[in-house]
Amino acid sequence: MEGAEDPPLPAARAQRIKAIQTVFRTPPPGQLDAAQVRRACTSANTKKAYQSYMNGVTKWVKATQDSADRFFNQDGSLNLTTFTPEHFENFLMYIMNGGKHKVADTGVL
Asked: What highest taxon heads this organism's lineage (predicted)?
């Protein structure tokens, strides 16, 4: 219908989309400085998205991998000598192909 506006997004979703657009806005070549990188990497939204992905990875490992404990260090962090890039690729394919574990949608993939 011409002239009709889309219904407004729920506030939480609209905030996530705005945060993602802010964090992932790429400056033109030659205009990125260290301060911009630090801000993007330390922003609350980036940290929240990272934690969401880590929670998703943890759930996926526990649900799909034999001897899941071997994937984690004593402090609960991911053991990167065990969790290889191939595991990460499998996790991403699982999520992108409709896996049941949800993670924050950063719009990057």
From this structure: Eukaryota
pLDDT in tens, 31-71: 778 887 777 777 777 777 777 888 889 999 999 999 999 99
Domain residue extents for the chain:
52-109
Report H helices in the chain: 11-23, 34-42, 44-64, 85-96
Instruction: Please give the model's pTM, rounded to 2 decimal places.
Output: 0.52
Place of tokens 């004593």: 74
> Are the beta carbons of 49 and 104 closer than 8 angstroms?
yes
Which of 63, 60, 83 has the alpha carbon at shortest distance from 71? 83
If you count them, how many residues does the chain have?
109
